[in-house]
Sequence to fold (291 residues):
Amino acid sequence: MSDIRDRAIQLYDAFTHEHRDRRALLRQMAALTGSVAAAEFLIAGIAASPAAASITDPNDPALVTSKGSYPIGPGKDMTGYFAAPLGGDHLGAVIVVHENRGLTPHIEDIARRVALAGFSAVAPDFLTDQGGTPADENAARDLIAKLDYDAIISEAVATIGWMKGRPRGNGKVGIIGFCWGGGLVNRVAVAAGEALAAGVAYYGPAPDPAEAVKVYAAMLLHYAGKDARVNATGGPWTDALKAAGKDVEAYVYDGVDHAFNNDTSAERYNEAAAKLAWERTIAFLRAHLDK
Fold:
């Protein structure tokens, strides 16, 4: 069964990250599992479930949360989800970057986890210009695949600038992202220069190693041991950051799958790895964003 599960996750990753046809995915899964019904059941377990319960309470009285827009340039706004500790002052700021499903309840939940750790968080919706994240995650993936990546990087850098100037902040900004968002974290670290204090990338595809010299932020990189696609870029990126004298920590979590932090995906989530990675993440952000 573990071989079937591993092969199924590989097929699903090819579907989600290489934009393959869903009917082809279903045929391949059915051939693997023996029936269409079994294939649909396995796909549901691998895919993130929007109905999964949040770890945090959206109405936690210890937090102030909202969803709205913020300015990133003359005449241009972006939608985001905001979370901060009630009464918090002089806080480091953290941008939470979503996966290729857009700004989902799961990412909003992560923003609240960041806030409960003592930071001011914003989770931008990078599909704002497309009308916002749709409820259908396949539609969201299709939209994200068509985005102008350079424009998205510029929006993220502008968000850093906006967060640095927010009242009750301490002027330090970090960024954390997952999957597609993890890849964006690496590229924003290249583009943002000294404006970014810290970056945390969960299983994010890495840029050309030659770009490492442009990074100023301290970097924390989390990789899944079974994620050959991303790890093929992660190793050279880590090595290049170290060779360039950058402040970088990188961890590989053996035996776990891509997206192991996503607790809304029954087949991918690994509680032990997710807990350890999160503890490292919060300690890292505190070290680089707290004064």
In short: The chain has a mean pLDDT of 90. The CA atoms of residues 70 and 130 lie 16 Å apart. Strands lie at 63-73, 76-85, 91-97, 120-124, 169-178, 198-202, 218-224, 248-253. The chain is about 45% helix and 20% strand.
